[in-house]
Design a protein that fits this description.
By secondary structure, this protein is α+β, with helices and mostly antiparallel strands. Among the domains are: 47 residues, no CATH class; 118 residues, no CATH class; 155 residues; 121 residues; 111 residues, TATA-Binding Protein. The strands form four sheets. The chain has a five-stranded antiparallel beta sheet, with no helix packed on it. It has a five-stranded antiparallel beta sheet with strand order 11-15-14-13-12, sandwiched between helices. Strand 3 and strand 4 form a beta hairpin. The longest helix is centred in the N-terminal third of the chain and has 18 residues. The protein starts with 13 loop residues before the first helix and ends with a helix.
Length: 871
């Protein structure tokens, strides 16, 4: 009898009958029941309810049933089942030894089984694949896995291959590198849709192999043709491929060094493809191919697409900077383009020629006359600023430099800030080179920059120049005419640490955006970060302490600081939002600077005489007409203690962004003083800041105002006002503040400690009667004494120093030659602290006694006394 009978049954209750037969004691009935189940599955019937009963039939000596267990689909499905079972009952999986059984199957020869096994093990152990599998250098698991790669579906592979490349120290790395290199080569030629996925692995493999070995040269040769083939696809795919190729070329330009022609622009390419090709062309340009590249770029500069033409002209300048032997040829090409008299071509050419002058000083000055012929056509800020820079830099070689700069000065107030700053510097350069006939011109520009301008950057630079020229002309020459650092083509490259991260994400959105995943993906477990508490001495990670109760106290209610078991994740779900679209400029008061006595012995020489003095309506001639910087800007000199700035985020951890900072309290306002330094090779934009919950509810009172973009090797400072209206969470230590700062590169996390005195309120002076009653009311057990070194301060000096920081002396007594100061202070959250300070001139130490109902603040208050009295 044939097996066709199994496919014809349609009676009711069939599932129930099959369940009984599968659990029968008779082997023949079990065998028949399994056949019926398979037949039902074949015709599309739902027999999922029989799964546990079928599994129970697997332990058998029947040959027919054993064959049904032989299908690799069963083992593949079993791996998935174990992973799902682990989610439901992890203890059961561990007790039954299922994980060990999966590891035993890693040597399976079927290509469908091994990847799924590894994936299941990785999910169960929550570890990278190689580490999760527990493989060793002598294991055959890696070889088995690599053998299966060609038959793995793209969905499975893309899900696991990001963990595939082993890192230093992981088991199996040497076997992986040795075995995978020759196997990946054929795969690159077999399936184009694998290409970008495999490129990621190949790039990581190259870092682990000897660059002089045959493996690397073989991989390089086999990787280039498939990448080139992708450029024959439709434009959208071309764009994705080009963005990935851009990263590969920046990391290893030798891979495509012989494929320049495939990146030449076609007439029907969309603009986004054209621009990407252009960028890659520059990265591949070398002395061997510069001739054909320049010919292409010159042709592009005659097209009708204005944006593409501009980029092409700039590309010629980048070629000149990158390939020094071809610089003269590039300059000649630019001059040819200038002769076309096409406005936007001329302006872009002048911009890039300025960079060429920076790269090759005193080499191509002969073309300046040609550039000056086009002054009247310049209407774009960048081009005007570039031309002004050229005139100022070579003012001694241009006979009518003063007339040219004066022509720009006529509409000074209407110029872009970039042009104003450049014009100010250029005229000062001209004055230092030709002081006899340009004094009136420099007086005019300094007056326009300082008296008639509301731009703080322009005013700052103007006052700095004014002070330099007024007090020390020699120093002014050293500063203004100093030798400038040479520029290089590498400034357009992605910062190395970011590039390494993006290489690990080739074939993902990160490689298209050229941004790390956490810059545009939220809620990913893999991107979650934990902010460790920062130890005051060692900077080690500390666990958050348990809650400590605080109670209310007179004369005003005390804010209770709630405790917390952990702050992990508080900063992980924040929405920093975009940074300010443009810097909100803070205006300095427009008032003439106060005249003070000139600094330096022998009297400083006023190179301007009384003419410049009269411009400011200032004092006697020969004096320092700028006075103190604080007086210039109308800033009150603060007497409160401001700690020196510390490095809060070093550049290596900030991917090139270094942050230093401190805290200050001025005019009843808490401020976070920040300095951002860009040590990366790309501009930084989009700055924003947010705080974690903290003990005193500190939070920014306004958006973070930083000059944007912040160019490489530049710094910018800001004062960020803070308020205490944010969410409260008790920290350990109490003054710990956790901060998240965002820019266009990433979100960075840092921890610092807020000096407690910036939280001392101005209304913390207690009446004597209330002070006495409160001191008696607080239990004696709450009193703590500290010893502080005495830097030979008198009681009056100590009292004044502390009062400047809102620690108020309520009463003073002298007992047997020892001064006793009774003081009060109040935190912004309403907590009062009472103090008794014993000062004896002959004793090298102070004795400080503190009483409060919130004993948690004692250590921070003690540190305040130490800092204030020792500074």
């Amino acid at each position: 009898m044939t097996d066709s009978k199994y496919f014809t049954t349609t009676k009711k209750g069939e599932i129930f009958e099959l369940k009984a037969e599968l659990n029968s004691d008779k082997k023949e009935k079990k065998k028949e029941a399994v056949k019926k189940v398979i037949a039902s599955m074949t015709v599309g019937k739902d027999v999922s309810a029989l799964f546990p009963d079928v599994v129970n039939c697997m332990q058998t000596d029947n040959l027919e049933l054993k064959k049904l267990d032989e299908d690799p689909y069963v083992r593949k499905t079993a791996a998935v089942c174990v992973a799902k079972l682990h989610d439901i009952n992890a203890q059961l999986v561990e007790d039954q030894g299922f994980l060990d059984l999966l590891k035993d199957l890693l040597s399976d020869s079927n290509p469908m089984v091994v990847p799924m096994l590894l994936h299941a093990i990785s999910e169960i152990m929550d570890a990278p694949l190689m580490l999760a599998a527990g493989v060793r250098d002598d294991s055959g698991t890696i070889i088995s896995f690599l053998a299966a790669l060609n038959d793995v579906g793209s969905g499975i592979y893309s899900g696991i291959q990001s963990q595939l490349t082993p890192k230093d120290g992981e088991g199996g790395s040497r076997v992986f590198v040795r075995e995978s290199a020759p196997r990946l080569g054929p795969m690159l030629n077999s399936r184009l849709w694998w290409l970008l996925l495999l490129s990621r692995v190949v790039m990581k493999l190259m870092e682990m192999l000897d660059t002089s070995g045959d493996y690397v040269s073989s991989l390089v040769k086999k990787l280039a043709p498939p990448l080139v083939t992708l450029l024959s696809a439709e434009p959208e795919i071309q764009y994705v491929a080009l963005r990935n190729i851009n990263l590969i070329v920046q990391k290893r330009s030798d891979i495509l060094k012989n494929e320049m022609k495939v990146f030449f622009v076609k007439y029907n390419d969309p603009i986004y493809v054209k621009l990407e090709k252009l960028d890659i062309m520059i990265r591949l340009t070398s002395q061997s191919n510069i001739a054909q590249v320049l010919a292409e770029l010159k042709e592009y500069a005659t097209e009708v697409d204005v944006d593409f033409v501009r980029k092409s002209v700039r590309a010629i300048g980048r070629c000149a900077i990158k390939v020094e032997p071809a610089a003269e040829r590039c300059v000649s090409t630019l001059l040819d383009l200038i002769q076309t008299k096409v406005n936007y071509v001329v302006q872009e050419a002048i911009v890039v020629i300025k960079d060429i002058f920076r790269k090759y000083p005193n080499k191509y000055e002969s073309i300046i006359a040609t550039l000056c012929e086009n002054l009247d056509t310049l209407d774009e800020p960048e081009a005007r600023a570039s031309m002004i820079w050229i005139i100022g830099e070579y003012a001694e070689r241009i006979d009518n430099a003063d007339e040219l700069l004066e022509s720009f000065l006529e509409g000074f107030q209407d110029e872009n800030t970039q042009v104003q700053l450049q014009l100010l510097t250029a005229i000062v350069k001209l004055f230092l080179k030709r002081p006899t006939d340009t004094q009136e011109l420099v007086q005019q520009v300094l007056s326009l920059s300082t008296q008639d301008s509301d731009n703080p950057d322009l005013r700052d630079r103007g006052y700095i120049y004014w002070r330099l020229l007024s007090t020390d002309p020699a120093a002014a020459k050293e500063v203004v005419l100093a030798e400038k650092p040479l520029i290089s083509e590498e400034t357009d490259l992605i910062e190395p640490t970011l590039l390494d991260e993006l290489i690990c994400h080739i074939s993902s959105l990160a490689s298209v955006y050229h941004k790390p995943p956490n810059a545009f993906v939220e809620g990913r477990g893999g991107q979650r970060r934990v902010l460790p508490a920062k130890s005051q001495q060692e900077g080690t990670v500390e666990e958050m302490s348990a809650p400590t109760e605080t109670t209310q106290q007179p004369p005003q209610p005390t804010t209770v600081i709630p405790g917390a078991d952990s702050l992990i994740g508080d900063l992980l779900d924040i929405d920093l939002g975009p940074g300010p679209s443009m810097m909100q400029q803070q205006m300095y008061p427009q008032q003439p600077p106060v005249q003070t006595q000139a600094s330096g012995g022998g009297g400083g020489m006023d190179i301007f005489g009384e003419g410049l003095d009269n411009l400011l309506g200032g004092g006697p001639s020969g004096g320092d007409m700028l006075g103190g910087l604080g007086d210039i800007f109308g800033m009150p000199q603060s007497q409160s203690y401001i700690p020196p700035q510390e490095v809060w985020l070093p550049a290596p951890k900030g991917k090139g962004m270094e942050i230093t900072g401190t805290f200050a309290r001025k005019n009843n306002q808490i401020n976070m003083e920040l300095t951002f330094t860009n040590k990366a090779m790309q501009p930084m934009t989009g700055f924003a800041i947010q705080f974690n919950k903290n003990s005193f509810g500190l939070m920014p009172a306004q958006v973070l105002n930083i000059r944007s973009p912040l160019p490489p090797n530049q710094s910018a400072s800001t004062s960020l006002p803070l308020n205490t209206t944010g969410p409260i969470q008790k920290m350990e230590p109490l003054t710990l503040l956790q901060v998240a700062i965002k820019n266009n590169i990433d979100v960075f996390y840092l921890s610092t400690q807020v000096p407690l005195h910036v939280l001392f309120a101005e209304d913390g002076e207690m009446e004597k009667k209330i002070f006495l009653a409160t001191w008696k009311d607080i239990p004696a057990s709450n009193e703590v004494q500290y010893t502080i070194n005495n830097d030979q301060h008198s009681a009056d000096t100590v009292s004044q120093k502390l009062r400047n920081n809102n620690v108020f002396t309520i009463a003073k007594r002298n007992v047997e030659g020892q001064d006793m100061l009774y003081q009060s202070l109040k935190l912004t959250n309403g907590i009062w602290v009472l103090a008794e300070l014993k000062i004896q001139p002959s004793n090298p130490t102070f004795v400080l006694s503190l009483k409060s109902r919130a004993v948690d603040v004692y250590e921070a208050v003690r540190q305040v006394y130490v800092n204030i009295l020792h500074n």
